Amino acid sequence: MRLPESWIETTVRSVVIDLQPGFAQKPGEEDEGTTPQIRTHNVTPDGKISLEGIKHITASEKELARYSLAVGDVVFNNTNSEEWVGKTAVFDQEGEYVFSNHMTRLRAHRDLVCPEYLAGYLQLLWSMGYAKTRAKRWVSQAGIESDTLASFKLPLPTLPEQQRIVDVLRQADVVAELRNLFDELLARTKRQLFIEMFGDPNPKINARWPVVKLGKFVTVATGGTPSREQADSYGTAHAWVKSTDLKDNVIVATEERVSELGIQRSNAKLYPKQTVMLAMYGQGQTRGRTGKLLIDAACNQACAALLPSDELLPDYLWIWLQLSYEAVRALGRGGQQENLNLDIVRGIQLPKPPVPLQQEFARRLAGLLELLKKSRAASEQYSAMLEVLQIEGLTGDATAAWREMHSAEIAEAARARDALLRERGAKLTQSSSVVATATTQADLTVRPARHWLLGELSEFQRQVLAAFTEYCQQSGQPLLVEDPEEFARFCDDAAVTDSLQAFGLSHGNRVRRSLSQLAALGLIAKVTLPKQDPESGERDYLKAFRPLRPDEFTRMTDVQALRKALSAGGDQRHYYFKVHLDYETSERAGAGGMFQVISLEDEDGKDFTHLVDQGLHYASLDELKDDIASALKVEAGQVDLEVV
After folding, report:
1. Which of 21, 70, 495, 518 fits 470 for a cystine, CB–CB 3.0-4.6 Å?
2. Which H or E run includes 527?
3. Which of 487, 520, 547 delimits the end of a domain?
4. What is the pLDDT of residues 189-237, one digit of tens each?
5. Do 253 and 334 sit in the same domain of this protein?
6. Taking the model in full, what pTM does it have?
7. Which region ranges are annotated with the description Disordered (predicted)?
8. Any domain includes 137
């Protein structure tokens, strides 16, 4: 990795004054004490401390002295499943807390590193899949030893720049939190709409409507699981719902799909659109979760399929089940794992309002769900932008202009930092280059300034990148990941199955997540493409990915090349671009009348889309010109745009 001039490369060991794993509580003593103990589930996937499900223990004075947590400590998850090992957060709770042996406490040397910067970089390594590549593995678990963690390389800017990076990322987090609050408000609005129209969902309290058994008015069925030993039972033909697909949302795609043979060989059956799915069993909070089919789909035996009824309409039934989640879960029985079954589901008692009122509810709910869809699409776009911001912040790209404005302050801080590190015996490296190994696939075309990232990817991500590149080269088309059938064809393609066979079956969601991560890292390109519904004729815009083109480099490299190519022969050269605009995505995101940029090309057809922020909604072409001119460091009047 080529670091900014004022940055150095060191190790985690060099910037901490303490690195301490926690301790295990004796069996049977949990929740009997008064001291809360931070465990693996108390660090969230987005790098925050959560006290949900906190355990309490009895800790001795010696344990309290050695394993206490203070505000500003960095908490690293050293043991977990491969997927989760390496999660990191800054501890931000007042009071007396300790931490388990599956967590490691890092105390930052505050004259060298901000805790938020250290935690942010470790969390970035986890999100990239790097942490698990450094872990030792055993059955269903992976662990990172203290010496290994201490040896992690760390790009280290000066303290003032670290604080600037932390401030920028914190502001971005505030926006993300506001988006989450808005989504929560919409969810509460859905509940309020139901209560206003029908009253309390509890049939023991609600006397407005007759109480009926669900099975009297709704056909209740289930499905099956084709044998995993018969690979041809799985394929692209039919969506196949599992309990893990049920998240109280509409279902437009599933993690796995089954073939026609799979349907014939098992108890799986195809169910129509508007069928409500209910999870009868599953781990954690899965039992009782729901989904409503917007596609024809089969399901496995863990799901109850509630077929569309003219007496209990799908939307009414679906939302009633969501609002009755705890009551429905409480009906489960059997063994150590409380389960529902078809008889229990058929016997569920619920109020039965008049059908016209249910129809009016469905009409109003449709508008609310459309708003939820737009909000979630906007949240997804913002999350993708936030991933890019985190990477650019923690590698120096985001603060390049800030460094120029504070060069004297940075120079002084760099001297103090380097002197202190030398006193501590640390090795300082001004820059480094990580060479991609043969497993990276030598023919891959990536941005030169991103080459170092290939060495940081997990093996799964590298194989997905190689398979994706081969697939797109063969097809000659981008991959529409939001088209269920096309994504299923991709997952079933020989290039993909051969590359990923070592990782087992059923990793559709993991592949989709890896593609998003590769796009955020700048190793593939994310685009928006139109797709027309053959039934309705409506055009929708779907997320897609494509390999990088040979002439795509980092933004700064392309800007310099463009300026050099076009500036010869006069200072007032005009820059001409053809631009393809996307109004539909902005409309869906709640920014009606604005647009995003799909592509930007010069008159020779060379792509310069990277000169603009594709996640930004522009109000006018003048705003877009200003952005391009700023990137080129020229006047806006020198930029001419033609909309195509």
Report:
1. 495
2. strand 524-532
3. 547
4. 999 999 999 999 999 999 999 999 999 999 999 999 999 888 889 988 8
5. yes
6. 0.59
7. 23-43
8. yes
